[in-house]
Amino acid sequence: MRKNKKTGIVGVIITTIVLVIIVIMSNINIEDMSNVESILSTLVMPVQNGITYLKNKIKGNNDFFTDISALKQENEELKKKNDEIAQQLREFEIIKAENETLKEYVNLKDKYTEYQTVPAYIINRDISNYNNIVIINVGEDDGIKVNMPVIANNGLVGHVISVTKNTSKVQTLLDTSSAVSGVAGTARDTLILKGNLEQENMLKGTYIQTTASILEGDKVETSGLGGIYPKGITIGTIKQIINTKNLSNRYALIEPAVNIEKVETVLVITN
Amino acid sequence: MKKAISVICLILTFFLIYFLQSNFFTWFTIAGVMPNLFIILVLFIGLYVKKKMGLKLGILFGLYLDIVLGSNIGIYTICLGGIGIFGEILSKNFSKDSRFIVTLMVIISTILFETTAYILGILRSGGSLELIAFFKILLIEVIFNTLITIIIYPIIKKAGYYLENLFDDKFMITRYF
User: Fold this and answer.
1) Mutate which of B65, B150, B157 to test chain A, going by most A C-beta atoms within 10 A?
2) φ, ψ for residue A174, nearest 5 deg
3) A121 and A237 inside one domain
4) Alpha-carbon Rg of chain A, whole angstroms?
5) CA of B119: how far to CAs of A130, B58, B116, in Å?
6) Residue numbers of the domain that contains A80
7) Which residue of chain B comes nearest to A125, CA vs CA?
8) Which of A204, B1, B47, B115 would bridge B87 by S-S if both were Cys, CB 3.0 to 4.6 A apart?
9) The model's pTM
10) Which ipTM did the prediction report?
């Protein structure tokens, strides 16, 4: 019985470790390997420093015999200064963060002067793996209504699907049931942009005309069709065009201009 | 009185899970996929509390999620209510003493819940059916839920038997004699 209990605890610990490892491994980017590099170098550094110290000593470095008490005093003073600087740095960081948020608001307002807008924060996100809906902190009391477009600094985010007194639900472009009419490139070829499960954080551009001359790197904007989104709001950039045997079935993968997974400040267009 | 306090505790657990899901599990993901702890909670209620409590609380929790976060009212309500009934059916037919059996129940419930929610979502909103991508996400979610169930099984077992004793008066007699 005791053995079973012990085995159970070991099992729980092992499973927890496995879960944490899977989460870390599945979310790691190759660029993030610099962290691993820094950990490895941290492991090696003490040995490396020791070797360098010995090497210098052998070379006849007499600095080792300098006045130790003077060095200690100097060290104390430097530590004190360091604490003061660290405190100042923390204060600057707070001010910087506040400044960034305010700047974001001002920039957003200046960029879309032709629209009447209401600034908002994203306060919650959908818990489902299959939908992409966010909750913002403005509602009926702020003049928000269903179907109003929502934008961020770089472009379109989505549209309002339901409103309460103080909050609104926004269906983002990445939601699988969202569809936006867009125009791409200088030829203004039309396409329909939809969210999809297959390519995470990408939009699928379908219904591309067979005569369309879209290219990778072309900017995509809203066409103004459909009655929800105004014309000319940036949606994203064409990253890849997938050609199929039947030309009418080809589609494009579009990277949204706004990082919807990370955006925090948005504007709701009210006119 | 004890029963009422237990139900309140279950509702508080739901809110704890809600905050975990919308904060912690938005970054603690496997390849961008979150687990679904609501399924485990409602299945747990159905398995141990019985008396249609799984159905009742499943509908209540589902309705809350539909109103606060969902794009269509009814999907979470139907699915979580269904998991509550499913838990009760499983409770009548299978033993809950084994970690393996409980984990298996979570796996089946996750598959049933997500498949129903996905199909209902498509029917209601008119999105396109992407089966391969759906199965990929579902597989990761099942693995995630399985690992969490294995980790929290000791808590499930302890709390479960406490609730089972509390809500089922006949339970003590049939269990020990």
Assistant:
1) B150
2) -80, -10
3) yes
4) 28
5) 11, 19, 5
6) 72-109
7) B22
8) B47
9) 0.72
10) 0.76
